[in-house]
Amino acid sequence: MELFDRPKFGERAVIVYLSINGDFTGDDLDEFKQLVISADVEPLVSISGSRRSPDSRYFVGKGKLDELKHVLIESCADVVLFNHMLSPSQQRNLEEALQVRVIDRTGLILDIFAQRAQSFEGKLQVELAQLQHLSTRLVRGWTHLERQKGGIGLRGPGETQLETDRQLIGKRLRQIKSRLKRVSKQRDQGRRSRQRADVPTVSLVGYTNAGKSTLFNQLTNANIYAADQLFATLDPTLRQIKLPDYGELVVADTVGFIQDLPHELVVAFRSTLQETIEADLLLHVVDASSPNRYEQAREVNSVLKEIGADKTPQLMIYNKIDCMPAVESHIEYTDDGEIKAVWLSALKQDGLNLLLDSLSTLCHKDDMHVDVVIKPSQAKLRAKLFEVAQVIKEKNREDGCWEMELNLPNKYGHLLAELECG
Fold this sequence. Notes:
Blueprint (H helix, E strand, L loop, with lengths): L11 E9 L5 H13 L3 E10 L10 H14 L3 E4 L5 H11 L2 E3 L1 H12 L3 H16 L25 H36 L4 E6 L5 H9 L16 E7 L3 E7 L9 H6 L1 H8 L3 E7 L5 H15 L6 E6 L10 E4 L5 E5 L8 H12 L4 E7 L4 H10 L1 E7 L5 E7 L5 H8 L1
Parallel strand pairs: 1-2, 1-3, 3-4, 5-7, 5-8, 8-9, 9-11
Antiparallel strand pairs: 6-7, 10-11, 12-14, 13-14
Helix pairs in contact: 1-4, 4-5, 5-6
C-alpha cells in the first residue's frame, strides 16, 4: 500500500548534512557517504551548512531549500538523503517542495538492512523494524489519508484511511512477532544445549566495517560474506573452534553497530543479539586505523548497554594494523598483568596466534592447578586430559602410572572424580 504519491526511488542522490549547533565533523560526512554507497546509491552532490536548530517545517532553512531545488535541477538526482532524523511532517513538506523522494538517516539504514537480510529470521526482523518506523509516520503528514468514500460495496463504519492503515500494520506486526517468537525458541534450544555441554561462547561485536566477519572467517575457516562496506553482515553465524590446551569454543559473528543506530533495529534484532547478551566473552573488534576508533568503541558500548550486555567481559581487538605504519601485532597488558587487548590484522592473518593464545589464557583464568596420578587402566582418561587441560609436566613411573601436573578448567572438574573412582 503506497502512503504517498512519490516519484519512484532512484539511485542518484543529493546528500544533506547540517551542523546543528556546531556539531559537525568531516569524518561523520564521510561515514554517511559510505552508508549511501552501501545502499547502492550514487552520491552526486553534498550539501552542508549550519543552523542553531532545525527548521520545524523543512529542517533546513529557506535559503538551503532553494539551493536544494537548484542542485536537483542541475544534477538530475532523483532522491535526497538527509543524515538526520526527520519528523513525518518535515519529510512530507520536503517531498512536496522538492518533488523527489526524501529519506532520512533511519530510512536509509533500514533500506540497507532490507537489502542485506538473507535468512528468514533476518527478513522478518527488518520488516518488523520498518513497520515500527512506519507506524510512527501515520500520525500526521500523509496526503492520501482522507475519509474513505462511500458507495455500493464500500458503505461501512466510515473509518478513515489512517485508521485502516493502522489496523493493517498492527495485524502484520502481530504476525511477525509471533513468527519471530517461534524462531527465538529454536535459538534458545540451541543455546541451552551448548550450555549443558559446557561449551563457552565468544561473540564478536564492534562498529560496522571493523573487520569482524574477516576475523570470524580466519578463526573458523568459514566462508561467510565479508566486504569493505557498512553492514555486510546481518544474519548471525556460529562456528566451533578448538583452542590450544582448552577444547571447544563457539564463536558468534553478529551485526555491526553504528552511530545513531535506529532504536527500531535494536528492538527488532534483539533475538539475534541474544547471542551477544548471553556470551561468556565479547571480542570487541575495533578498526585501529580509524581516527575515530575511540568514539566508535563508545558507540558500540552504548548499544551493548541498551541490550543489557554491558556487564559481559570484553577483550579489545584492534584490527587492520596492516593499514597503520610501523605497528606490529602484539598483546597489550594492564598494569596488573591482565590481558587488555590484542593488536592484529585479520586480513593478513598477522597476530591470530596471539588472539588464540589470549583466548586460551582467559579460558584458563579460573582453572584448577592440580597434580594427579593416572593408572595404566585409565589411558582413555589421560588422553581426555591432554585434550581439555593444559599439561605442564608429565612423568612416567616404574609401576606404569603417569604423574601429571595440570591446569584443569573448572568445567572438567568431574574428571578428577573419575580418576579417584578408577
